[in-house]
Design a protein that fits this description.
By secondary structure, the protein is mainly α. Helix content is 75%, strand content 5%. Channel that opens in response to stretch forces in the membrane lipid bilayer. May participate in the regulation of osmotic pressure changes within the cell.
Amino acid sequence: MGFIKEFKEFAMKGNVMDMAVGVIIGGAFGKIVSSLVDDVIMPLVGMLTGGVDFTKLSAKIGEAEVMYGSFIQNIIDFLIIAFCIFLMIKGMNKLSRKKEEEPEAPAEPSNEEKLLGEIRDLLKKQA
């Protein structure tokens, strides 16, 4: 029973949950970027290169067919994803630096705290 309990504690730690959320969001983000590359960027690149469809590019070497066009497309996918992640991290770092620079303003007391303060002051005057 100790192994299962230990696994449950591990799985419920914040870092593991954060990582799971990151993997799910990363998968969805990857689909968005793949669509951007496949449906927007590559048709434009194909138009600029005279209608070349990179996914169809290949070279026959003996009996083997090397699909280097798909490889080129995957490199473009990777570069776009890496650039987007770079921009997100850069923005998050900028926000966290800005947050560190701003001094925290003291929170204004709630109406209940103000009322309790007035009651305290009245009791002090009576004593």
